[in-house]
Amino acid sequence: MSKIPDRLYIDDKDRELYQMLSKESSLFRGKINRDQFLFTAAIGVTNNMRIPIQRKENWFLTKDLRPEDNALFNAIALAETESTDILSDKNEIYKIVEEYAHAGIKILSNEMVSVEFGSFHKHLEKQLNDIYSTLAKNINVRNE
Amino acid sequence: MRINHLKFKNYRQFRDIQIDLPYRQDKNDLHLFVGLMGTGKTNLLNAINWCLYGEEPFLSKAENQRLPILNLATMESADNNQQCRVTVEISAESKGANLTFVRNAFIEVCKNAGNRTKNVKEEFKAFLQQEDGNNKMTDGDAAREIVERFVPSGIKDFFFFDGERLDKYFKEATSQNIKNAIYQISQMNLVNRAATHLQKTISDLQKEAGKASPEIEITRKGLEIAQTDLQTNIDEISQCNSQIKLAKEKVEEITENLRGMPDIEQLEKERGIIKIDFKEKEELYKEKLSEKEDFLFFSGIQMMLWLRIEKAASIIRDKKNRKELPPTIDKKLLEKLLEDCKCICGRDIVTSSIEAKAINDLLATIELSSEVAQELMLMENPLELAKWKIKSYNQENQKLTKGVKELEIYLRKIEDRINEIDRQTGGYNISKIQSWIRERKGYEDALAQNHKKSGQLELLKTQNETRAKELKRKLDDELKKEDKFRTLKDDIVFAENSANILEQANKTILEAMRKEIEDITKRKFFELHWKKESYKDIVVSDDYTVSPIHTFGYECLGTLSGGEREVLALSFSIALHMVSGFDSTIVIDRPLAMVSGDTRKNVGEIFSKISRERQIILLLTPEDYSGDVRSVLEDVAGNRFEMKLSNRELELTLEAR
Description:
- The complex is a heterodimer of chains A (144) and B (657).
- Chain A has 144 residues and is mainly alpha-helical.
- Chain A has helices at 14-24, 33-46, 67-81, 90-114, 120-139; strands spanning 7-11, 56-61.
- Helix content of chain A is 59%, strand content 8%.
- The longest helix of chain A is centred in the last third of the chain and has 25 residues, at 90-114.
- The chains are: A mainly alpha (144), B alpha/beta (657).
- The A-B interface holds A 26-27, 31, 35, 38-39, 42-43, 45-46, 67-68, 70-72, 74-76, 78-80, 84-85, 87-88, 121, 124-125, 127-129, 131-132, 135-136, 139, 141, 143-144 and B 290, 292-293, 296-313, 315, 319, 368, 371-372, 375-376, 378-379, 381-383, 385-386, 390-391, 393-395, 397-398.
């Protein structure tokens, strides 16, 4: 059995993007690295885009992950590999989410540029409403 | 006093001008000056005032908004520190005597200080033609006395009018001026001086009696104190009443100024309150918005991972359905079997046996499954929670959006109200209006205080009157007791009777003058007014407040039109002139400023009528002197001058028409 990793990484080139978004967008302002990472990983997933990391850079420690965060990471990896075996390989799970986050931060920063300044939340809300509408049909939740 | 010539040197727009106003037998003594705004009409009125009284009452009130008295073209061509002379000269005649008044101001031009001017010296001279035909020159106070003899400063407002200010003509302060002027005109000062002298004589005689009797002295002193107190009461009541009148007038004047203006005080107060509310709600809005943005952020993670969450949850569900979760074989039990080399049934297990290999194989499988199973078990609840959150996304988002929107609408409403207040107050001089409101509040307070004070003083006055009467009766009784005081008593009675007669005379003369002024005002008003049926009387009260009485019996000064007020003012002025014996030229700036419609022609006809008897100078704009007015005045006017500015609008030129 390989050693369980103690931290998660981003591509060293992404640090600047994270910092820029933390400074210029209220989306990332006040959010810790873990939450920013979760968000970018989710963007990568929803856009179905993974990009391998070239040069790793520390981003946060795995001890900071909450059970719900681990559950989401596991869900990403499980759906990705369609095998429960992946759950015993934390290295692979983290590698998958790191790659999604790497793709996600690029997508996000591009979207930020294309959206009018200060209106990203509206853009996000619209996207989420669209997702919800689709979900509502599929999972038969009532759109209240 | 009739003006024959006016000479100007370097006075404002009048750089070097002489205006001759000859009387022509075939025309009325009417002289018209027609010019656009800014050509110098009001300054002609100012010039006459400045020459005679050393003041320019029709300039802008704000000192810093005034141009220098020195003609600007002269100032421009002057050298640095050069002294220039400003002169206005009025040549006139009155009851056969020729008069000339000259006022000079010596102005230094400081070119190096941005063309500032410094008034170095001012002098005033009066030349009065003597019986031998020679002119006698006087200056200083003596010259001013001559002015007072012909055109007293106290009643100058009744010679030199500003038509645009006619609305304020019959205000309380003006009636006080009239009263003072009447006092001056009727030479009541002489009567008063005699009355004061008699009072002193009575007091001296009483003192003399007091020396001879200590009892009389005590009563006399008491009487003296009571009379002094009474006089103090009377003076204070008089002052109080003046203050009441002044405050009333000021309140009305300021209220008039504020008419149609926004209630700045209230609006500013409201603005202050809603600004605070705005800040509080803005903070709340930011909090709500931030809450919503955080919600979107964290919900976003779950929503975007929805498919993955759903898939993982479905795998867990399958595992559970297949009873793989939780696991059925205990890993620790298998490990103990190998360690003890004993099977569950009690048989020994040899390390290399088939049984041992089977347990090891099973253990290897279970080890993997157990870790995975544990992860799956740990995932179950968080994923279910995430699913629940995703399902309630819409409801939660709507709730948060509603909160944000409500605050947005509220803030917009506040902003709209602030804008509305700004719009209402925009274009107004807020500090001026606020200062008016404060001023009015001050006068209202003063009015209330003085009313209260007046009541208290009246009560004190009654008490002091009673005290003085009792002491007087006591003093009379004591004087009667002793024969030795008989002569003294007779002298006192004589002096008192004389003082009473003077007091009566004072009242009679003043009443007679008031009545005469009232009669003439009434006669002239009905003679001049074109709506003779509308009014039945003109009343001039003891304090010289002029009140027209409508045919239906009510006092109606407030409802008089601009033209009617002008007729009333002119009638009253003529009455004042006739009674006082002062027959000065009447100069009116913009006499038709407050007059509109058909009334303009009527007022024009009135000037035509009055100018048959006395000199009238009218200062008009071309609009004032349009068709209807021109048709009435053009043929009867002795002179008409057109006022124009030349030399880069720094100098006035006059063209006689």
